[in-house]
Amino acid sequence: MIELRRVSKVKDGKKILDDISFRINKGEFFIIQGESGSGKTTLLRLMNRLEEATSGEIFVQGTPIRKIPPQELRRRVILVFQEPRLFQGSVERNIRFAPRHHGMAVDVEALLKAVGLEGYERRDAFSLSGGEKQRLAIARALALKPEAILLDEPTSALDEASKKEVEKLIVELKETHGATVVMVTHDLEQGRRLGERGIILDKGKIVYQGRIRGPENV
Ligand SMILES: Nc1ncnc2c1ncn2[C@@H]1O[C@H](COP(=O)(O)OP(=O)(O)OP(=O)(O)O)[C@@H](O)[C@H]1O
Ligand SMILES: [Mg+2]
């Protein structure tokens, strides 16, 4: 569904990503692991065209993304940032905003139920807890019926209880909604517990590629 072929990224003369190739299959739970600064966020940003690769090519369903208009790409492949970027106003407003822009209908009640935020329609988005904000960001992404959802360290800022709730939701995304999920995490244990396949980055290079699940790996 998403394929990278020999992708490199140079910034200010520094190689941030070096010859990265991998493929993410439809419906897969794909993990990107690596230490801080290894290039994980940059990789997601390239997949969303928030930055352009210096060389190499990225494909979505076989089409090079440089041929897909950014707005269309960002509806089909949605990036949820580490710090959810919510708009001022109600939870409902946050969910309706992007679908309206794309002329899509949205069932706010069903979406909030799916992420465990039933009855939150009128709450001020900024008044939510960290875990609730992350779940709202995921509901907002789901409203656009994406083909894939890219999550950048969705639980790193959360306490244990909220982390478990967000993890449960992410697993459901895949199992109930059949979504392709790409999750960045520096938490090896979390990666093994939730993921199926993935890569490990070290200073911009892939140092492992393959099965992630299970304690015997890495
Ligand atoms: N404009 C820039 N110029 C030079 N280096 C940059 C620039 N932007 C990012 N970098 C460097 O690129 C590397 C990769 O950054 P990136 O944010 O992708 O890492 P990351 O794996 O997501 O880290 P973290 O786990 O801390 O979020 C880092 O060393 C960072 O300092
Ligand atoms: Mg990062």
CATH architecture call: 3-Layer(aba) Sandwich
Count the E strands.
10
Q: Major β-sheet, in short?
A: 6 strands, mixed
Q: Determine the mean pLDDT.
A: 91
Euclidean distance between termini CA atoms: 25 Å
Spatial strand arrangement across the major sheet: 6-7-8-3-9-10
Helix/strand class = alpha/beta
At the first level of CATH, the class is: Alpha Beta
Low-pLDDT stretches:
none
Counting H and I runs of at least 4 residues, what is the number of helices? 7
Please tell me what the overall shape is: globular
Over all CA atoms, what is the radius of gyration? 17 Å
Characterise this structure.
This protein has about 220 residues and is of the alpha/beta class. It has one domain: Rossmann fold (3-Layer(aba) Sandwich). The protein has helices at about 40-45, 70-75, 90-100, 110-115, 130-140, 160-175, 190-195; strands at about 1-10, 15-25, 30-35, 55-60, 65, 75-80, 150, 180-185, 195-200, 205-210. The strands form two sheets. It has a six-stranded mixed sheet, with helices on both faces. The longest helix has 18 residues, at about 160-175. The protein is globular, with a radius of gyration of 17 Å. The model has no long low-confidence stretch (mean pLDDT about 90). The protein binds adenosine-5'-triphosphate and magnesium ion. The site of adenosine-5'-triphosphate has 13 residues, from strand 2 and helix 1. Adenosine-5'-triphosphate (ATP) binds near residues 38 and 39.
